[in-house]
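We give its fold:
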Amino acid sequence: MYYSDEVIDQVRSSNEIVSVISTYVKLKRQGANYFGLCPFHSERSPSFSVSPAKQIFYCFGCGTGGSVIAFVMQYENYTFPEAVRFLAQRAGISLPEEDSSRERMEERNLKSRILEINKEAAVFYYALLKSPAGTDAMNYLTGRGLDDETIRHFGLGFAGRYSNQLVMHLRQKGYTDDLILASGLGVGDERHGLQDKFWNRVMFPIMDVQGKVIAFGGRVMGDAKPKYLNSPETPVFNKSRTLYGLNYARKARTRTLIICEGYMDVIAMHKAGFTNAVATLGTSLTSQHGMMIKRYADDIVLSYDSDEAGTKAALRAISILQETDLPVRILDLSPYKDPDEFIKALGTEAFQERIDQARGSFFFELENIEKGYDLKDPQSKTAFFKAVAERIALFEEDLERDNYIEAAAGMYHVSSQSLKKMVGNVLMKGVRTPAVSAARDREREKAGKTTSLEESERLLLTWLCEYPAFYGSLKEFVTPQDFEEGFYREAAEMLYQQLEEGKPEPVRIIDRFEDPAQQSAAAALFNTPHADVDERELKKSMRETISRIMENSLKKTVAESARDVGALQRMIEMKKKLGRVSDLDIRL
């Protein structure tokens, strides 16, 4: 059930956030905001903030945040529509039976039609695989050890040898060229017209958690490039929020997820009985994946290829998954490259043993740090332990650091007291080497801090909410396009539009997202901690922040200017503006 923006605004404005949250959490006023113990994680000192001015809550400890609707969703474990209905009933508001918003209806209809055409395409690909035209594709799949039941279970198929077979079929079924393009099943230009996105590939339908086909992946059977090709992003498909196989893995009788690198790894593991395996889709694991995984798992096992590329991918995944506060373990597949090879060679019992013996991510990181040092050389060995100390120093809690000091000391047969002293020196000096810089930033993020650029962008968004008049001084210098692509830029575009219309309402931006993790991420953008300073120092900080964002945007424009005359002109204009920031008259 969808509700219009007008209905959501009415429900939200009729449920004052302090009044609602006070029925769940004991709040105490401190300045302009209210504080209490966070109901979403265990804490002794109140870090849970409620802003009556912004109508937003935010926990500086765990990062959970959002509107009054988001709070009810999190606390009561409701979906977005359920939370809206709950609050509407609380306020005595009668909700419409159906959303009459034309825009919302069009969006819903487009998503529905894309899901429908994807289902038709999946049926077409499966039928073609089973036909004489699909013999080579079927031989490829059976050669990889897949039987008919596994092929049917995952809905595998074949995209024909000709580049317009699916398009012709879909047209015959009454689907328009516009819909074929919008679904990502077709591509076109003036010279070639509309053609299939996929042809002469084994096809893997990609499903959402409800089992609806939202996209496709195609694999060549020979040596052509690219080896794998995925659907483009559409209104129903975002690869950074999708995991292949999750529709089956979420039903497994375990709260452990095994994360693999590709389709065939997932399929091979499910065939062998490990139905809790999932994989990313042509992209590295993202923070959005991490948020999703946390809903379905209490334990994560990484099963990446054992080659150099797989090791690098595992290290990147560890850095992302550390933000989930879930235990991450690494599967040792040696001497085999991937799960498929391992299971075929040694069987399911041996694979289960490897899962049970999977190493904690910390030890995996140490082993990879060790590869850069010669432990037989005293100088190199000392440098290695300094690197270990820097890694251990990233842990926030004293007890946690002590535990890992003991573990590392035992692993490398050194004095735990000597290693502890070395960690203490790192903490006192605040040393940050390039090797641990990104990891330190993630630990800072847990404490409500960010990397320099992210912090600048968040500060700017927070200040725009607190000092709307600042927008008049800012808009000539920083536009939404100067923000990093993705979530920050999307939020900036919405906030700038609100300011153009006269009033910032971050709570409306937050409620554009129905996923609790996204709501918390959006709330964080408008609750960035900053020093309580006088107006002169505040304006100085604002100018420095503007310069930092502009300089980053200028770097990207410089890179583009070599191949784009328009970018060259923008670069010249940006340099002129950047030179004026120091004299900018900021109005608050």
Summary: The two ends are 42 Å apart (CA to CA).
